[in-house]
Amino acid sequence: MATEPLFSIPQSTGMETVTITFEGKALTVPAGINVAAALLVGGAHEFRTSVVGQVPRAPYCMMGVCFECLVEIDGVPARQSCLVEVRDGMQIKRQSGAVDLDGTNFGENHD
Amino acid sequence: MASQQLTVVGGGLVGAAIAYGAARVGVQVRVLDQGDVAFRASRGNFGLVWVSSKGGGMPRYARWTYDAAKLWPTLHQELLDVTGVDSGLLQPGGFWLGFSEAEVAARAELLEKIDREAGGIPFQMMEPSELKNYLPDLGPAVVGGSFGPIDGHANPLMLLRALHKGLREKGADVVTGIDVEKINYAEAGGRFDVFSTDGQQWSSDRVVLAAGIGNARLAPQVGLHAPIVVTRGQVLITERLKRFLEYPTNKCRQTREGSVQIGSTSEDVGLDDGTTPEKIEWLARRAVATFPALARARLVRAWGALRPLTPDGYPIYQASRTCPGAYLATCHSGVTLASAHCLVLGPWVGGVTDIPLEFDVFSSDRFTGPKASFSHGH
């Protein structure tokens, strides 16, 4: 679970922030950054569990290539969190293993 | 008997399988491999171990394919034992799925013909209601299908890796980054000298051409004929999904790791291994029509790859008459046939066994002469 963050963002006065939720915990983060960065700054270490071995995974490439940073965002599974910008009120959960085509609400707001 | 030395030109699935098959029976093997800069058909193979509908115009090929599917578990287990690499073989049977009654009727006719002519290639035609017992997520666009009980699939890349590791385990010499330019046959000593573009040279008693597209250029140098064209296959792959597809089909298959591979096209575009939006869309629509739940899956990659094809689509396996010890092996289905290439062709080209029964039909002589006009069945 979220512990002491390994990453931080330099604070500046007047910075616009948004509030997102990761596994039920509210995080206030700078607007305009991507979800992966926001979660790392918030101290998240485990973004998902791997498909075959069910072991914890976290972002690796931060540029949309490695698919290690997958999370569920607003009910949509397996989103690449490094490619999605934070939005106020965003509900984020860990991605548990592979996507289940039958058992998931895929939401309407694919962006 | 002194061990013969064999040079295999080409380290893709065909060359590696033959080379491993020779090495495992004691032949001294050297593989000259262009490396991953080559148009490696092994990378584009859809990964099916597939018997159904193969060999409609050549019963011996249907039988060869059937035998290969039967031999696959032996190869898979041996590679696992020798190398620890899992080629990913699953053989639960496979489905062909049709979108029109005419297509399904033609399929039934073809499979009956092959079954009759090749002496027992089992299959079963099924209505959608029966298909759904096996493929519960099947969509309404599918009006019928056929089941091949020994069809299956494997992981082409892991198979290639297993064969290369196996070659090293069996003491074979695998040289990579080699572009073979010239092969000389010295009648006096009965030996072959193989030359690469960078000035290296190797000598051996026997040589096998398994260079895919490259065979066309090399074959005439040792008295063989390899009329080869290429087809491009485009393939799509989804993110990893929870298992919903227990059987491989002709439209898509779910890998053991959970990705769904969707394929493939067969295009005549020369040496262009790119992808096109039109074909990607066509493949995706077809897959969604087959299994509507796939509309919710995300695609993560698409790629194109070139695969060699002879004018009639069937392989060429042939020993040179003018340069004894030279062989040609070229085919389209490097995964399906890997087991037969290894366990049957390897010992033959290594000089350990005689030519397999009724193998003359695979000679490229069929492409010469007045009757040589073809349409391939792939």
Instruction: State the separation between the terminal residues of chain B, measured CA to CA.
Output: 42 Å
Largest sheet of chain A: 7 strands, mixed
Task: Give the helices and strands of chain B as they follow along the chain.
Answer: EHEHEHEHEHEEHEEEEEHEEEHEEEH
How far apart the termini of chain A lie comes to 28 Å
Strand tally of chain A is: 7
Number of helices of chain B: 9
Per DSSP E runs of 2 or more residues, the count of β-strands of chain B stands at 18
**Which word captures the global form of chain A?**
globular
**Count of alpha/pi helices of chain A:** 1
The third-level CATH topology of chain A is Ubiquitin-like (UB roll)
**Secondary-structure content class of chain B:** alpha+beta
Protein described:
The complex is a heterodimer of chains A (111) and B (378). Helix content of chain A is 6%, strand content 28%. Chain A has one helix at 35-41; strands spanning 17-22, 25-30, 48-49, 56-57, 70-73, 76-80, 91-96. In chain A, strands 1, 2, 3, 4, 5, 6 and 7 form a seven-stranded mixed beta sheet that branches. In chain A, a hairpin with a 2-residue loop joins strand 5 and strand 6. The mean pLDDT of chain A is 88. With 378 residues, chain B is an alpha+beta fold. Chain B has helices spanning 13-23, 41-44, 59-83, 101-117, 128-134, 156-169, 215-218, 277-290, 338-349, and strands at 5-9, 28-33, 48-49, 94-98, 124-126, 144-148, 152-153, 173-176, 180-186, 191-196, 201-204, 206-209, 229-240, 252-254, 259-262, 299-309, 316-319, 326-330. Chain B has a six-stranded mixed beta sheet, covered by helices on one side. A four-stranded antiparallel beta sheet of chain B has the order 14-15-13-16. Chain B has a three-stranded antiparallel beta sheet with strand order 4-6-5. The mean pLDDT of chain B is 93. The A-B interface holds A 51-52, 67, 78, 97-104, 106 and B 137, 239-242, 244, 257-258, 293-294, 296-298, 300.
